[in-house]
Amino acid sequence: MLNRDEALKLLQEKVHDENLIKHMLATEAVMRALARKFGEDEEKWGLTGLLHDIDYEETKENPEIHSKIGAQWLKELGFGDDVVHAVLAHNERHGVERTSLLDKALWATDPVTGFIIAVALVRPDKKLASVELKSMKKKFKEKSFAAGADREQIKSCEVELGIPLDDFLELSLQALIGIADQLGL
């Protein structure tokens, strides 16, 4: 398994879209926070989040193979079957069942990062630090707001992770605030 510096170097070689890189950094931050909450391996969970979309630029025109190539790359780089499975399972098109806590955490985390960033971007100062749970909850109900952030997928945190939605939104927000400088927010 790569260490974080090696994983970041790989990410920068494979991904050139700045917003996609920020999404992957954001996913890493939330996954690390979840690992701490559950007493799991923070490095493993963080790297799973960081690299979950490593093949996106190569597969964006063919979503049926997105995450299959990335999962294969991670397997070849020595990542464990649990990480490979989580990356593969985060694309529901493959029909791969989410069985582990890692799988379920990545599934819920993937869309929440974009949702929270969208909430920050409509704030007057465009800063994560000014986002409040109340504003996230209000925007969450607006289906047209950040429409790409699947609300049901985010709400899976309640059943699959046992975390109430409000707590998941707050945990995710705090994780993103922790890397706000990297996200430019």
From TrEMBL:
Q: Which residues form the HD domain?
A: 21-98
Instruction: Identify the Pfam families for this entry.
Output: HD
Under Gene3D superfamilies, the record lists: Hypothetical protein af1432
The record, for SUPFAM superfamilies, names: HD-domain/PDEase-like
Supply the InterPro entries for this chain: HD_domain, HDIG_dom
Q: Which domain of life is it from?
A: Bacteria
> What name does this protein carry?
HD domain-containing protein
What is the organism of origin for this protein? Caldisericum exile (strain DSM 21853 / NBRC 104410 / AZM16c01)
